[in-house]
Amino acid sequence: MSEEKKQENPFDLQKKAKYAKHIIAIASGKGGVGKSTVAANLALSLKNQGYSVGLLDLDLYGPSVPMMFGQHKPTESVSEEGILPALKYGIQLMSLGFFLDANQAVIWRGPLVMKAVNQLLTEVWWKKMDYLIIDLPPGTGDIQLSLVQKVQLSGAVIVTTPQDLALADVKRGISMFEKVNVPILGIVENMSYFLCPECGHKSFIFGQNGGYKESERSKVEFLGEIPLNEEIMSSADTGAPIVECKPDSAESKYYMDIAEKIADKLK
After folding, report:
1. Domain boundaries in the chain?
2. Within 10 A of 155 (CB to CB), how many other CB atoms are there?
3. CA 196 to chain centre
4. Tell me: the pLDDT tens digits for 111-168?
């Protein structure tokens, strides 16, 4: 009986996608932690390290890839096999935001969400790539479950801020991925501190070392910390993330180092 139940578990039926060697989910327990900015810059960092990369925006309720990349439609052409992704800064891009009015709210029940996730995973004509980075919405809802039922993930990266409120949700996110057979590649602590550009003083606005302590508690790797930085934030709003517009900057190095750790773990 137990064997029959195991066979019926939908998470045992995950299939490896033919178009990507590795699929990595960028997730967070709560909103407002800068997850999408991390996803975009990690995708660009992997591309700068010589990998072929795609970025899929599955944050259906608040798609931000169009704004961050200054790309507001997928492509001029559609093939018989599906929609062709956009190509920007050497990365394949797809987002539901390409098909919505910027002011249009997505108010969907579970079945529609699951259908949209399936279409973005199977009806987009992705070219083969080394890494597909998936920007997930915050939380542990229908989109996350639909994704892990559909394809096999190489792992998930959890983005958090140091504050206790965000860390409480990190625990739930890690627990969810573990239950659905997705390895946790590590934790990224975003907005770790503010470094004064005038005097160099570090201000720990949201607390200190919360992500590192949670990584120790959860026994997952701490991938690195990223400061609260004006250039990182402004570049994301102007259509050219920091790793693209200033690849040799100190700000870009945070993402490059994290991307290198992720790639090393998946070799």
Report:
1. 21-265
2. 18
3. 28
4. 787 888 888 888 889 999 999 999 998 877 778 888 888 889 999 999 999 887 777 7
- Rounded to 5°, the CA angle 170-173-178 comes to 125
**Domain range 21-265, its CATH number among 3.20.20.140, 3.20.20.10, 3.40.50.300, 1.10.1060.10:** 3.40.50.300
Q: Could you tell me the pLDDT band of residue 1, with boundaries at 50, 70 and 90?
A: very low
4: number of Cβ within 10 Å: 7
Residues 244, 252 contacting (CB under 8 angstroms) = no
Residue 240 φ then ψ, to 5°:
-145, 90
| Element spanning 132, H or E | strand 129-135
- CA–CA distances in Å: residue 242 to residues 29, 136, 194: 24, 20, 17
Q: What is the pLDDT of residues 29-75, one digit of tens each?
A: 778 888 999 999 999 999 999 999 999 999 888 888 999 999 877 76
Residue 168: partners with Cβ closer than 8 Å, 6 or more residues away: 29
Looking at residue 102, the DSSP 8-state letter turns out to be T
How many C-beta atoms lie closer than 10 Å to residue 166's C-beta? Answer: 26
Q: Give the CA distances from residue 257 to residues 26, 49, 133, in Å, rounded to whole numbers and listed in that order.
A: 16, 10, 16
Report pLDDT digits (tens) over 203-225.
998 888 888 988 998 899 999 99
pLDDT at 60: 82
Q: Bridge partners of 24?
A: 133, 155
Contact 146, 118 (CB under 8 A): yes
Find the Cα–Cα–Cα–Cα dihedral 184, 146, 138, 262, rounded to 10°: 30
pLDDT confidence of residue 123:
86
Closest CA to 57 of 48, 49, 45, 66: 66
